[in-house]
Amino acid sequence: MSTSLPGGTWTLGDLTVTRFGYGAMQLAGPGVMGPPADRDSALAVLREIADLGITHLDTSDAYGPRVTNQLIREALHPYPESLHIVTKVGATRDDQGGWPPARKPDDIRRAVHENLESLGLDVLDVVNLRLGDAQGPQPGSLAEPFETLAELQRQGLVRHLGVSNATAEQVAEARAIAPIVCVQNMYNLAYRQDDELIDELAEQGVAYVPFFPLGGFSPLQSAGLSAVAERLDATPMSVALAWLLRRSPNILLIPGTSSVAHLRENVGGAGLSLSDEELAELDKIAR
Asked: Which domains are delineated in the chain?
């Protein structure tokens, strides 16, 4: 394992992962549908994550659909013992590129088996139950789909469980059903609705994995962020990633990219050193 990755490591149950991970969503085609424009470049990015010592790889069979999982298998199988793949179930894709929910027990079972098949695995390291919709978390019980995931865990098909796009109430409901090792929600320097949840999870040893850590498909726009980045002779993206690693020790990063050069830039940027004064300045952005 590389010792040069920023942030060190975190333990998901009995799995040690680098806090700097990689999210594979951008390896699929436009709108996360279909194959990548440059298949060789996509495979090169995946091989580079292994070369860099990144051991936390986030994916979903819904990306493509099945595209990113197939790329991961082609690039990295047989997988290094240190590499841990985290996937998601609970949504599928329609012909319009939408993300309709798929959370009935049969949907969950089918999705787990499809992830196992497409990744070439006998057991999945971590499976997150994706909740809510494209607008964010939505209230409602997760008992039926999460109990199904817990059943699959007891059967030995899944090692650890998590939730994604969830409210704090849903996180608590999940934990009452079975232990979870991570929560994956939208969070970044400017979008900080989960501040209280992050601190609570840190005390309980549960990882928090922000998606859209750089603002999603529309990058973060902030005069305050740009000012700090300019003073540090760094990119706003680097500052945003470094801030997340400093925000709490249980935050794991999974920024995505389809470029090897951009991947290396993200790794270097996340290691940027931020002073207490700069952190205080950045904290004002969300207020």
From this structure: 10-218+249-257 (3.20.20.100)
